[in-house]
Design a protein that fits this description.
Elements (H helix, E strand, L loop, with lengths): L8 H7 L8 E4 L3 H12 L8 E4 L3 H11 L2 E3 L2 H5 L4 E4 L3 H11 L8 E4 L6 H8 L4 E6 L9 E7 L5 H11 L3 E5 L5 H9 L1 H18 L4 H22 L3 H8 L6 H11 L1 H24 L1
Parallel strand pairs: 1-2, 1-4, 2-3, 4-5, 5-6, 7-8
Antiparallel strand pairs: 6-7
Helix pairs in contact: 1-7, 8-13, 9-10
The structure holds NADP nicotinamide-adenine-dinucleotide phosphate.
Length: about 290
Amino acid sequence: MKPKAERTPAAHLKAHSHLHPQHLAVVGAGKLGEGLLSGILGTQLAPASHVAATVAHPARASYLAEKYGIKAGTDNHAAVEGADLVLICLKPQQVKGFLQEVHGDLRKDALIVSAAASVTTARIERELQHPARVIRAMPNTPCLIRHGMIALARGQHATDTDLEIAEGIFSSMGRTVIVDEKHMDAITGLSASGPAYVYTIIESLAEAGVKLGLPRELSTELSAQTLLGASALVLQTGEHPAKLKDMVTTPAGCTIDGLLELEEGGLRVTLIKAVVRAAERARQLVDSHSA
Ligand SMILES: NC(=O)c1ccc[n+]([C@@H]2O[C@H](COP(=O)([O-])OP(=O)(O)OC[C@H]3O[C@@H](n4cnc5c(N)ncnc54)[C@H](OP(=O)(O)O)[C@@H]3O)[C@@H](O)[C@H]2O)c1
């Protein structure tokens, strides 16, 4: 693996004002949608006065309006009307209803970016009944602190410029990659579900420290920073993880004993199976949406 060249799509987008959305709607501004709002406003890709957001509950709308100075409400029609960029952050099962609801209000030339798991660009294009420009995004929760991993895939009518715009927006939340849509279920199982697996590993390492007599807080800090540092070394050096593992593993030292336990416990196979199962589930969700 090669280290990724330093790219700043957000800076690129910022420098090219013709790529900026004029009116932007964030539909379903929950955990992910709020993270996006914060990234977009923080990087000044759009002024707050040109951003609208919708949620289900008026109390949350008031919170968003007050915190970000945007128009926030529960009326999807009003939010998407006139918007040239619509970010869909709804739950997967709500996307179809939303598209049917706002079908007549959406600008035909609006760029639609959907972060809903499992919902394909083809599905969105079908619901809209016109050759809509659609980008699909698969982020993960570290986006909330701008350390996310976001995969982007284009629909059949989306352009290179559309991808540039989506990349600029999501790069304010972490690292972006552009992929073929056929990989999205695998990515859902790996990097979107992945933080949950990693938290389990962090928790387990911390428990080990506690077992050995370390205070829990210290043990959790040691564990989490170890994963963070090891991950950064992989990304920054571009070295194969096995080579970096060898650097830790002194002949007849302590680490090789620990690694033997991991092999005996089947950690590798277990993690591989976890990702495969989650990806299979993502595929099933697509089927149930198409039913
Ligand atoms: N969170 C992640 O790590 C992650 C990662 C990858 C992909 N995704 C995708 O992102 C999407 C959202 O996930 P999330 O974790 O952000 O969920 P969430 O926090 O539950 O956000 C969903 C939001 O949708 C709002 N909503 C519900 N019905 C609505 C409607 N009819 N019109 C407008 N807004 C409506 C809800 O409003 P109220 O708050 O008022 O109830 C809520 O704010 C999902 O499709 C998920 O697959 C999330």
